[in-house]
């Protein structure tokens, strides 16, 4: 999507791999021009950065250890339950706001969260549906994916405050990309198995 946008804007694209909690600071200091990294639109983030139009609907879901009794989010906030979350994500924010009995383990990346669950060091992790599905595929013998979202969110591109010209251009690209079938092509190419599973479960797909 970013490469297609670069062609549309006639600008070269350079990717910077930055820890999630460093994305907004990097945007505000001018190190980067856009955040395109699973960023959920929230009221708190909108205080410090602007967002493009949403391009994807996503939900928070659960990866549970196979031996855990967790079946839904209602089962998570209990004594002796340990939850793994990725720092600064909406899963982390949700856990802080809603869990008063469970123990929260915070890590800098999602693969570590998934490993904790697979090894039984955490009862579950909460994160976006894409990551939960992919980590379940990796640890099918020891985990369960509870893909029905307990909180629905929208992803958008993060843009520096006041950069209205770029935001207008990005929104125009997103409109054209969607209408031209770009998101459908990406979904079929990269998330074909996800799409099939979601259809079987009756869960709306991302795009």
Description:
With 207 residues, this protein is of the alpha/beta class. The chain has helices at 2-9, 23-28, 43-46, 90-98, 110-118, 129-138, 164-179, 182-190, 192-201; strands spanning 34-35, 50-51, 56-65, 82-86, 103-107, 124-128, 143-155, 158-159. The strands form two sheets. It has a five-stranded mixed beta sheet with strand order 5-4-6-3-7, sandwiched between helices. Helix 1 (2-9) crosses helix 7 (164-179). The mean pLDDT is 95.
Instruction: Give the helix/strand class.
Output: alpha/beta
Arithmetic mean of pLDDT: 95
What percentage of residues falls in helices of 4 or more residues? 25-40%
Strand content bin: 15-25%
**How many individual β-strands?**
8
Side by side, the strands of the main sheet go: 5-4-6-3-7
CA-based shape:
globular
Distance between the termini: 13 Å
Largest beta-sheet details: 5 strands, mixed
The number of helical runs is: 9
Summarize the SSE layout with pairings.
Layout: H1 2-9, H2 23-28, E1 34-35, H3 43-46, E2 50-51, E3 56-65, E4 82-86, H4 90-98, E5 103-107, H5 110-118, E6 124-128, H6 129-138, E7 143-155, E8 158-159, H7 164-179, H8 182-190, H9 192-201
Parallel strand pairs: 4-5, 4-6
Antiparallel strand pairs: 1-8, 2-8, 3-6, 3-7
Comma- or semicolon-separated keywords:
alpha/beta, 9 helices, three-stranded antiparallel sheet, five-stranded mixed sheet, globular
